[in-house]
Amino acid sequence: PYYIPPCAILTKDGTRYQELFALRQQAIGDHEQYEAHTAEQKALEFFQPVLRNDYDRVDIIVFHPQMLADFGVIEELGSRMFAELDRDVLEPTPISRWKAWLLERRRDWCARVCRD
């Protein structure tokens, strides 16, 4: 099945990455050494938006930048839709509160003017 790898490593850094992995295994009892090797190993990693089919095979499918941008738009629209659906239906909107405030001020003004 296709999956999105959590990170990628340059081919030239592959040997060093494996060495650091072995050093991390050896340093399991020593927290400082383990963290140092982990940090160095993480520095070699970077995210690349691709799909892979298998660990051993080299063929990958690269996400097109426009597809990533479109996904961002869809995610934003979905978030806004869910926020709107979660909102209480009886809760007044900012515009209706503004109208209510204006009507109340108008009534107060009319009451004062008509009284005088």
What does the model show?
- It contains 4 helices and 4 strands, in the order βααβββαα.
- The chain is mainly α.
- A hairpin with a 7-residue loop joins strand 3 (50-52) and strand 4.
- The termini are far apart.
Helix/strand/pairing class, anyone? mainly alpha
Could you describe the largest sheet, including whether it forms a barrel?
2 strands, antiparallel
- Gap from first CA to last CA: 82 Å
Let me know the average pLDDT. 80
Share of helix among residues?
55-70%
**How are helices and strands ordered from N to C?**
EHHEEEHH
Shape field: elongated
Assembly form of the protein: single chain
Catalogue the unreliable spans: none
Strand content: 5-15%
Per DSSP E runs of 2 or more residues, the count of β-strands stands at: 4
Helix count, per DSSP? 4
Strand order of the largest sheet: 1-2
- The value of Rg in angstroms is 29 Å
Layout of SSEs?
Blueprint: E1 8-9, H1 14-26, H2 31-43, E2 45-46, E3 50-52, E4 60-62, H3 65-86, H4 94-115
Antiparallel strand pairs: 1-2, 3-4
Helix pairs in contact: 1-2
